[in-house]
């Protein structure tokens, strides 16, 4: 019996997505294959970017379609970006989501898109197609040798002759590629550099950098103590503030030191008992090698970012204020500074503390705990889960560009000669920034990326203890929405724990992840046997690459671009005595003009959104849709409804806020790590 098949094929919208090459197709079903057919309509330009082309094809009845085999005949600029295809025959319809490239001269099998576990495959042909797809992916996505990532998460192996797969290439956009944004920012600043004074004063002349750029809002209030404390709960690194029951060891602070800084009649002991003293501590920098290099002129350059710590006090108005700062751990040589000290001593102490925060943030909170811990999950997914697997469908959109941006960061920022060497305290020949990343990874487990557990561990989960904590109040509802969404999808397929144990593809995913990506002791279970564990792991991954990355990334321009607020290196050793600093000493401590230039440019680049950015709450829906089953669409719609409610909550809270915190608005959180 002859069947008429109608094919609707959508080409992607990226630059270069369309093709003039001959594209042919074979329909493969449970009863056989169609003859090859070139898809070409007379007097029509097939496969233009963003186009939906419709074709008719007659064949013997092929049964249920298993896959579409597309062949690209090749030519000049012939690569073709296929979004999806839909095939109908009478009352039957099959979906084929793809969102990847069909390269010049290549043939690819696009599997039918109904979400299925391996054991649910309807035919041996379907099972074979899943295996063949994974064999090809494993060749495309090899792990780096263990010695190349020692002390860090596993990563994709890239080298000469083994480039990044085209499906993973970073967007080549005007306002997307951070290299482009860096270049544009540097150009805008350099237009004005000839006007800058020769006698550079970084505290004053920094404003001249912004003649062609937006001035960070905190530039006018950065010296204020309330602003300093605000950044601990809604700044670029809101993950450190911790309730403490006693003074840190080695921090000699007395009631005389804080006279007039606490509520009337309150002592340090009473404030600690009343749960009004908090700590931010960067002891992780202790023993980390700092920049030290002798130049060609024989002059040694050094930089500092001390293992600093700060106590904050919740006053009677329920506002946080910095109470004391120590720029080291040694009670004998590292004095404790307070607002009662000389103004320049106190200002310098705050600047050094922010420098310490910045070095810890860049390598641990940001690079390690979002970018690099995500990469093993991308790798395990691409190597072990075929397109129809529900976990692949759940994760894929959130992994867009992550491999490319990580490789770009390694080469452009972290490697020897990268821009971090130009201006960050832990950069340089001794690779202190990599030592810091490894130290952070040694201490880290995936559970640390779960916000509720982390907040509880730090004693700041309860709003009665710390009332104004916007990061907490925005992150938790988003976690809960993700947990419901991920759990709904997974439990639709894994009705029991036995279903998960029997999923051979998911078990291979786990084996690959733990052997090459992350040591099993970094994960919440040693074996993947419980559905609850998988829900927990994947919720943490999706929260990390979207919400958590947004929190620690997209405020970088606001936080770092006005460099005196948070310099990434200090050019003098921290002061060891009080009362010796003068006004002219502060500009000599903070970065040079050249270092500031780099910090402004990098901060702007890393805070930028791309033209093709896809947000958690995206107007018109997500561009890449992998599920089409009604039950799964309903789960996704429920997720979107929760995100809309959270957007309204963020807007309502910020309506009366003196300094709004909007970085975790769901419609401004990218789905994944894209910069």
UniProtKB/TrEMBL annotation:
List the GO biological process terms. Answer: lipid oxidation
Residue ranges of every copy of the Lipoxygenase domain listed in the record: 115-675
MF GO annotations: metal ion binding; oxidoreductase activity, acting on single donors with incorporation of molecular oxygen, incorporation of two atoms of oxygen
Query: Which parts of the sequence belong to the PLAT domain?
Result: 3-116
**Its domain of life?**
Bacteria
UniProt xrefs under SUPFAM superfamilies: Lipase/lipooxygenase domain (PLAT/LH2 domain) (SSF49723), Lipoxigenase (SSF48484)
- Cross-referenced PROSITE patterns, in alphabetical order? LIPOXYGENASE_3, PLAT
In Pfam terms, one family for this protein is Lipoxygenase
InterPro entries, A to Z: LipOase, LipOase_C, LipOase_C_sf, PLAT/LH2_dom, PLAT/LH2_dom_sf
Query: Could you tell me the keywords of this UniProt record?
Result: Lipid metabolism, Metal-binding, Oxidoreductase
List the protein's name. Lipoxygenase family protein
Which source organism does the UniProt entry give? Answer: Myxococcus xanthus (strain DK1622)
The organism that produces this protein has a lineage beginning with: Bacteria, Pseudomonadati, Myxococcota, Myxococcia, Myxococcales
């Amino acid at each position: 019996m002859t069947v008429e098949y109608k094919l609707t094929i959508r080409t992607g919208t990226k630059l270069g997505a369309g093709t003039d090459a001959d594209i042919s197709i074979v329909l493969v079903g449970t009863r056989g294959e169609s003859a090859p057919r070139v898809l070409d309509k007379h007097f029509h330009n097939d496969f233009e970017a963003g186009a939906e082309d419709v074709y008719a094809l007659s064949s013997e009845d092929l049964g249920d379609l298993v896959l579409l085999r597309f062949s690209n005949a090749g030519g000049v600029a012939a690569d073709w970006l296929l979004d999806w295809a839909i095939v109908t025959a009478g009352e039957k319809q099959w979906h084929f989501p793809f969102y990847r490239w069909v390269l010049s001269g290549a043939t690819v099998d696009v599997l039918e898109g109904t979400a299925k576990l391996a054991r649910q495959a309807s035919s041996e042909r379907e099972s074979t197609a899943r295996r063949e797809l994974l064999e090809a992916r494993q060749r495309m996505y090899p792990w780096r040798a263990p010695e190349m990532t020692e002390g860090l998460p596993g990563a994709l192996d890239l080298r000469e002759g083994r480039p990044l797969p085209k499906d993973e290439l970073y967007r080549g956009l005007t306002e997307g590629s951070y290299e482009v944004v860096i270049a544009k920012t540097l150009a805008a600043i350099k237009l004005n550099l000839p006007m800058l004074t020769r006698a550079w004063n970084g505290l004053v002349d920094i404003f001249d950098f912004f003649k062609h750029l937006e001035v960070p809002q905190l530039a006018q209030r950065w010296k204020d103590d309330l602003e300093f404390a605000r950044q601990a709960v809604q700044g670029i690194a809101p993950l450190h503030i911790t309730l403490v029951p006693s003074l840190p060891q080695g921090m000699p602070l007395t009631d005389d030191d804080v006279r007039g800084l606490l509520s009337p009649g309150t002592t340090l002991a009473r404030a600690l008992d009343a749960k009004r003293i908090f700590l931010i501590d960067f002891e992780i920098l202790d023993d980390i090698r700092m920049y030290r290099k002798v130049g060609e002129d024989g002059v040694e350059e050094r930089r500092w970012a001390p293992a600093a710590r700060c106590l904050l006090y919740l006053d009677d108005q329920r506002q946080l204020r910095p109470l004391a700062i120590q720029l080291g751990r040694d009670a004998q040589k590292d004095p404790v500074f307070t607002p009662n000290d000389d103004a320049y001593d106190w200002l310098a102490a705050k600047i050094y503390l922010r420098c310490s925060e910045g070095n810890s943030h860049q390598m641990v909170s940001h690079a390690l705990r979002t970018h690099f811990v995500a990469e093993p999950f991308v790798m395990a997914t691409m190597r072990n889960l075929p397109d129809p697997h529900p976990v692949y469908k759940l994760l894929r959109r959130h992994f867009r560009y992550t491999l490319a941006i990580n490789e770009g960061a390694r080469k452009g920022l972290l490697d020897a000669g990268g821009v971090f060497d130009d201006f960050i305290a832990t950069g340089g020949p001794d690779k202190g920034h990599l030592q810091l990343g490894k130290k952070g990874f040694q201490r880290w487990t995936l559970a640390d990326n779960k916000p509720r557990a982390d907040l509880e561990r730090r004693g700041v989960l309860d709003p009665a203890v710390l009332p104004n904590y916007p990061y907490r109040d925005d992150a938790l509802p988003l976690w809960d929405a993700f947990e419901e969404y991920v759990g709904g999808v997974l439990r639709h397929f894994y009705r029991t724990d036995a279903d998960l144990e029997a999923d051979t593809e998911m078990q291979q995913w786990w084996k690959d992840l733990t052997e090459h990506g992350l040591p099993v002791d970094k994960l919440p279970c040693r074996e993947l046997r419980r559905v609850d564990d998988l829900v927990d792991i994947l919720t943490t991954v999706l929260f990390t690459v979207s919400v958590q990355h947004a929190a620690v990334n997209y405020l970088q321009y606001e936080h770092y671009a006005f460099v005196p607020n948070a310099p990434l290196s200090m050019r003098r050793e921290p002061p060891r005595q009080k009362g010796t600093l003068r006004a002219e000493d502060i500009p000599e401590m903070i970065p040079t003009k050249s270092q500031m230039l780099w910090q402004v440019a990098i901060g702007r680049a890393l805070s930028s959104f791309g033209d093709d950015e896809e947000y958690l709450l995206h107007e018109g829906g997500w561009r890449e849709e992998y599920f089409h089953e009604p039950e799964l669409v309903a789960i996704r719609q429920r997720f979107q409804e929760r995100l809309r409610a959270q957007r309204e909550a963020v807007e309502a809270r910020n309506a009366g806020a003196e300094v709004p915190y909007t970085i975790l608005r769901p419609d401004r959180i990218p789905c994944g790590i894209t910069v």
